[in-house]
Here is the input.
Amino acid sequence: MTTPNGKTTLLTVEHQTVSYIAGPLLIAEQMIGVGYDELVEVVSPDEHVRRGRVLAIEGDRAVVQVLDGTSGLSLPGTRVRTRGEVARVAVGDDLIGRILDGSGAPIDGGPPLRAEGYRDVNGLPINPVARDHPSEFIETGISAIDGLNTLVRGQKLPIFSGFGLPAAELAAKIASDAAVPSAAGGDEFVVVFAAMGVTQREAEFFRGTFAGSAALERTVLFLNTAEDPAVERLLTPRAALTVAEHLAFERNRHVLVVLTDITSYCEALRELSAAREEIPGRRGYPGYMYTDLASLFERAGRIRGRSGSVTQLMILSMPDDDITHPIPDLTGYITEGQIVLSRELDRRGIVPPIDVLPSLSRLMNAGIGADKTREDHRAVADQLYAALARGRDLRRLVSIVGEAALSDTERRYLAFADSFEQKLVNQGGARRTIEQTLDLAWTLLLDLPPADLKRIDPALVERYARPGGEVEQPAA
Here is the structure.
């Protein structure tokens, strides 16, 4: 509504036409002029105001999602107020270093946010025509990622975990240690970390991890705990991505967005779908879950002509460690690879327990090379994969025929698989540069027969294997 002096004000309309309440939803009749995704206020009979969001419009009937739950609401006394607003979140540099709840309100006891503006949380995927191909290396400090499944700026790469595996610890470590190589220029690197449906213990862990390492100074931390309304989890990643997009494409920063746990998000999506009595899809999840996840993941990337970027790492706990479950299955279709955590490696005390063989980074080749990491990177990674695969096959053979039946060469490959996991993958809490990772890889490869290093150019063997010494060349 525009006043005579030219100012725009929002017209508040109150509706007393609630006809149905179930779970986190209510239905109100005669909602004329109300739009999809509009924010509303739900007023209980005792005048307690709760936040709500319009999920669907059917004629003059609106389905409202009550963010604070519907407990205590009754049909006769409940009212719905509308103002024509959509869900928005504050953006700006002042958010860096702050801890926010799932909807973007500060919960760290600090001063009020000095926002540069407010943005609609329902952003759009980047236009494919405007996308710039990701090609810049991100050094996470994790050898199994940097060396064999390299993360590139603008990439969306999920971490497939299982319940009880240290995925949260890995995500926090990457967020704390991820670095911008000097070749990328002087752009500041910012982390936007969004935790969805976490326990209070996990929330305190994230607070302590970032504050203890001083990483909070370059982090925006969103915390939606299990005690918060489940439906708020649907807003948390969207609010985080909106903040990230502002920092990347309007403030020209490189932003790493960490989303954990996508499984909690999908469970909230299923709960909401069941409350709306929608026809379920696979295992009870809504049929539009693929589209919903894509609306989040496709907000990562680079835009041609802009120096900033949004990179996504999403943590996903696989129910029953089943990689064919609908959540990891659909995520794998949308994203550009996956990092898989192994329960077996975790039992053996390997930190982080990354299983390299089923892991993949589809954009790795675009982010490595002589001018980005090192000229031997691709060849070393290929040789490591080949040797590890052979060593794993021999482990299965040993379980049948015993180690005594192996040849000397086969024993060397069997020992290589153990050394690879214990020395390269296992790094505890230490951080390694890409140079340290590749140098360590060479020390492992030199335990193999030189004639078997067929995936590495002899000139690279001469240059990197034993600097200053003689190296037996592999057979042509």
